[in-house]
Amino acid sequence: MCRTATLLISLVALFLVPFTLTGTSVALSDISSALHASLAATQWVVNAYSATFASFMLVTGSLADRIGRRRVFASGVAVFAGCGLLSALAQNIVLLDVARLLAGVGAAATATGASAVLAAAFTGPARAKVFGLFGTTIGIGLAFGPTLSALVVHEWGWRAVFTLPGVLGLVCLAFFRWLPASVPDPSKPPMDHAGAVLFTASLLLLIFGLVEGPALGWTDVRVVTALLTAVLLLVVFVAVERRAAIPLLNLSLFSTARFLGLCLAIVAVVGVFAPLLIYLPTFFQTSLGMSVNESGLAMIALTGPILVVPLLCGIAVRWVRGPVQVVVSLVLVAAGAAWLAAGAALIPALLVLGIGVAIAQGLLDGLAVSAVPPEHAGAAAGTFNTAKLTAETLGIAVVGSVLAAMTDNRLAGPAFPAALHLTLWYFAALAALTAVATSVLLRPRGDPEVTPPRPTDSTTLMDRPTVPEPSEDGSGTAAAASTTVTD
Q1: Both 237 and 290 in a single domain?
Q2: Distance between CA 268 and CA 331 in Å, rounded?
């Protein structure tokens, strides 16, 4: 009973994390109108959440081992739920943006805490099944966030998009004592505080510059200072990580051509997919005249394949190698983006693009883990997930900045379709070029050995034990997708 309750509480809380990211997209127009907010201020509703979520994943994962898994999980859910309710009560855009900024921190602790709690509660074959559900839950939250939120907004208004996750989070929190107890592990190496601060500050400053650039002007001293400081901090972060005894990220992993190719693939895929999840509902409503419900239903063509295709990919690896499927996924993403940019056959184009994304989502996590020696599997999983989350965050910010600049900060009117179609052509080119680069990098070859961190403990602070590793051809990766865990 205790393990069943642990699984249920963890998965419900986990579902809310991606649901709140993608689901908010259908409410942006209503939020802007209700709070009389500018486009840049409204974009922070999404960008603030995604930025802190991506950057604090590096920190909260290591904290779970140092202050206790249950404590991190419960703290994350409490912050997430409280900020959700605060967002629902916000009477101005500044308060809403601040609440969303803090909610992203809570979401990071929720996701890593849930992973850690489940890893402690389940072992052996049961753990593999549980983390199959873990990945599926994330997929459902991403896939049906816009559709479910559209129904919620239609019935109860935009504030309900934040109220519902907040209330469900509090329900999960009420049962946190059912979770297995944990104690801090004093044997763990000290956290790479310098790396964590540098990475987080760099990402937040970069997002600020990209979001505020169109409104303030690209020559505004605040924008220029933010962008230059972000680049400087990133350079310092790389230097610090190369010299750290126990680095936050083991950068030598990128010397493995196969791992580098898989990282490029996921960056391209989520860099296309995440912005479309956020901005397509607004396009459907303001440019195509769809209602909130209709826009949510149309998004199923893009997101629905995530529920089915990864399972089929796991079967197909018997005949088509995993790396080949990855290249095919990029080609499909390129084709779908180009088809969508042409402005015809909306649903078929979304479906093609969605299938390409789903193939990648089903295979890339497991292939990344198997691309390095087993002793570096945890570091590979942590680095890969960091690349994925960073690409999602920057993709949303960059595309929002481009669309804002081309539509005079309105995301409406005749300029919006033209701006979106041009962006889609760039997406198609990005995916096509990445397909070529990935096909070269994934060719079998002798990769240089990955340099382990010092001392003899070969783990980084982002290391996580994983479910049984897939074979090099990608078999078994569908069930293992997004199954990074903390012990």
Answers
A1: no
A2: 11
Q: Is residue 137 part of a domain?
A: yes
Q: Can you give the residue range of the structural domain that contains 451?
A: 250-487
What CATH number has the domain bearing residue 161? Answer: 1.20.1250.20
Looking at residue 446, its pLDDT comes to: 54
Same-domain status, 322 and 434: yes
Least confident of 36-40, 60-64, 86-90: 60-64
Number of folded domains in the chain? Answer: 3
pTM of the model: 0.79
444 and 353 share one domain: yes
Top pLDDT among 478 and 422 is at 422
